[in-house]
Design brief:
Strand content: 15-25%
Low-confidence stretches: 1-44
CATH topology of the largest domain: D-Maltodextrin-Binding Protein, domain 2
Shape: globular
Mean pLDDT: 89
Radius of gyration: 19 Å
Helix content: 25-40%
Distance between the termini: 12 Å
Number of helices: 13
CATH class of the largest domain: Alpha Beta
CATH architecture of the largest domain: 3-Layer(aba) Sandwich
Largest sheet: 11 strands, mixed
Length: 347
C-alpha cells in the first residue's frame, strides 16, 4: 500500500462548518454510516435497508414513498444510509447491514460480488443492473464569469477546480475518466490524457470525500468550477443554488448500478423494489430528478442533450482494466500522479 500523504486543503471556516455538520448528522445512524436517514411505513412487508452513494439521497427520498404506495410496496419500511460510494461499498463488505445497494459505479458492486454478498448475475437483465445514467458536467458560478466551456479551460492559470477524492468517491473517478477520455481521444493518446490529469489536479485545492460534499464546498464559495454529475447540478439549480452548468462536447456516460444483497431477510420485497426502479414509474422519478433514464421509452419523455463526443467506460477498456490501471492504490496511474504532487491516495 502506498504511503499516506496529505491532501492539499485550503482551510475555510464555512467549508469546515458544512462538512462538520455532515459528520455530526451521521453520528446518530443505526447503520454506522457517516450519513443516514430513515423512512418508516407499516411493517407487513418487512424492512429494507438501502445503502447508497451520497448524491442519490434525494431521488430515493421520492422513490421510496412511491414504491410504498404500490401493492408490492405496501407495508414495507425502509432505512436509508448515504455516503461516498467507495466507503459504502467497503462498509457493506465489512459487515454493514444492507438489503439494497445503490452505488455510483460498477466496481463498488463487484467488490460485493467478490465478497459473496451480491449474486454474480446481478447485471444479467436488459439494463445490465443500471437504473440511471448521467454525464460529467462543469458547474460554475452564475453567468460563468471565467468562461469555462472546455476541458482545457480547467487547466488555465488562476482557475480553481473542485472535485472529490477518487480513492473514496465514485463521482471523482467518473470526473477523472471524463477528462482523461476527452483529452486522450478516448484513450488513443494515453500520454496526452495523463498529462492532462496531472495539469488538472494542480488546479484542485481541495478534494472532499464525496460528490455531495464537493457540491457543498462549491456552494460555500470555494472554487471557480465544480466537476459533477449532471443530475446533481440540475437538483442544485432546482433547490435555488446560484449556479450554471455546461455539458462539455466530450464527456463520459455515467451508469449507476443497484443490486439486491443476497443476505437480505426480505428477498421478495427487495426484488420488488428493484423491479420498481426499472419500471416506467420508477424511471420517470429518476428523469424528474435530473437523471437520464435507462428505460429508452421513458428517456424519450425528457430533453437531455446528447454530447457529440459522448463515450463510455467500455470505450476506455472497461472497469476491470480501468480500475486497476488508473486507481490501484499502489501502482495506479492516478496514484502516481497524486504521489508526484503530494496528494493523499488513502484516508
Amino acid at each position: 500500500m502506498s504511503a499516506r500523504r496529505w491532501i492539499k486543503v485550503i482551510a475555510l471556516p464555512a467549508i469546515a462548518l458544512i462538512i462538520g455538520l455532515g459528520v455530526l448528522a451521521g453520528c446518530g445512524s443505526d447503520s454506522g454510516s457517516s450519513s443516514s436517514d430513515t423512512t418508516a411505513s407499516g411493517g407487513g412487508g418487512g424492512k429494507l435497508t438501502i445503502v447508497g452513494y451520497s448524491v442519490a439521497r434525494e431521488v430515493y427520498g421520492q422513490i421510496v414513498p412511491a414504491f410504498q404506495a404500490t401493492p408490492a410496496g405496501k407495508g414495507v419500511s425502509f432505512e436509508q444510509s448515504y455516503a461516498a460510494s467507495g466507503e459504502q461499498s467497503r462498509a457493506v463488505a465489512a459487515g454493514l447491514s444492507a438489503d439494497i445497494v445503490a452505488f455510483s459505479l460498477e466496481p463498488d458492486i463487484t467488490r460485493l460480488v467478490d465478497a459473496g454478498l451480491v449474486d454474480a448475475d446481478w447485471n444479467a437483465g436488459a439494463d445490465k443492473g443500471f437504473v440511471s445514467n448521467s454525464v460529467v458536467v462543469f458547474v460554475t458560478r452564475k453567468g460563468n464569469p471565467k468562461g469555462i466551456k472546455t476541458w482545457t479551460d480547467l487547466t488555465k492559470p488562476g482557475v480553481e477546480v473542485i472535485t472529490p477524492n477518487p480513492f473514496t468517491s465514485g463521482a471523482a473517478q467518473w470526473n477523472i475518466l471524463a477528462g482523461y477520455g476527452a483529452e486522450s481521444n478516448v484513450g488513443k493518446d494515453e500520454a496526452a490524457g495523463l498529462s492532462y490529469i496531472d495539469a488538472l489536479f494542480k488546479n484542485v485545492p481541495v478534494q472532499p470525500a464525496s460528490g455531495r460534499e464537493a457540491l457543498q464546498v462549491f456552494e460555500a464559495g470555494k472554487g471557480d468550477v465544480l466537476l459533477s454529475y449532471e443530475n446533481d447540478a440540475i437538483a442544485a439549480q432546482k433547490a435555488g443554488s446560484d449556479i450554471d452548468y455546461t455539458v462539455p462536447d466530450a464527456t463520459i456516460l455515467i451508469q449507476n448500478p443497484v443490486a439486491v444483497v443476497n443476505t437480505t431477510k426480505n428477498p421478495q420485497s427487495a426484488q420488488a423494489f428493484l423491479d420498481f426502479l426499472h419500471s416506467d414509474a420508477g424511471q420517470k422519478i429518476y428523469g424528474d430528478n435530473g437523471y437520464r433514464p435507462t428505460n429508452a421509452a421513458v428517456a424519450k419523455e425528457f430533453n437531455f442533450p446528447t454530447p457529440s463526443g459522448l463515450f463510455t467506460v467500455d470505450d476506455l477498456g472497461g472497469w476491470g482494466t480501468v480500475k486497476k490501471e488508473f486507481f490501484d492504490p499502489d501502482n495506479g496511474k492516478v496514484t502516481k500522479i497524486f504521489e508526484g504532487q503530494g496528494i493523499a491516495t488513502s484516508k
